[in-house]
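A quick aside before the break. I want you to see a complete sequence-to-structure record at least once, exactly as it would be stored in a machine-readable document. Don't worry about memorizing anything.
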Amino acid sequence: MKSKEELIQIITGEVDQCLRSVSPAQLDAAVEKIDKAPRMFIAGAGRSGLAMRAFAMRLMHLGKTVHVVGDVTAPSIEEHDLFVIGSGSGSTGSLRIQAEKAKSIGAQILLITIVPESPIGSIADAVVSIPAPSPKAKAAAGIVKSVQPMGSLFEQSLFLLGDFLILALMEHRHQDSEEMFKRHANLE
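That is the input. The structure line, written in tokens, reads:
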């Protein structure tokens, strides 16, 4: 049995290896798409959805117009909007249907996934591939190995990748945390 210190070291090592394996060119393309988008719609399911909601919050703090798909205040997506999806498999049924609808309207799609050649990946305008294992993406080649259950490594990496994208956008937009904090919720 491994000690808690050993397990923490294993988990952080897996996340480190996974994030260091993400393509810098894909990250640059994602930053560019997000920066230029007039409005963004964010979606994910399950734990990936939670990571995407956290990303949406930071985009709002950055001053972007952003909506979480499924929230009652989310308006209709329009041409030129950006639909950002976090899906390990890239084939989650509800997300695939939403992506197809958004594409038919003329929105751009950015997919963060394990499987870039997935159904959603095949219609996406940009893809960021996270090489994490998941039972829903067994066919993905060259993935980082993990001792963690199910899709945990993808979900952790997705959360941290969102924070990386925010830091890159902060630099690109010349914003700092103090300026962003002015947009923090004050009805807590």
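Two observations worth writing down. The chain has one domain: 4-181. Residues 152-173 form the longest helix (22 residues). We'll return to this after the break.
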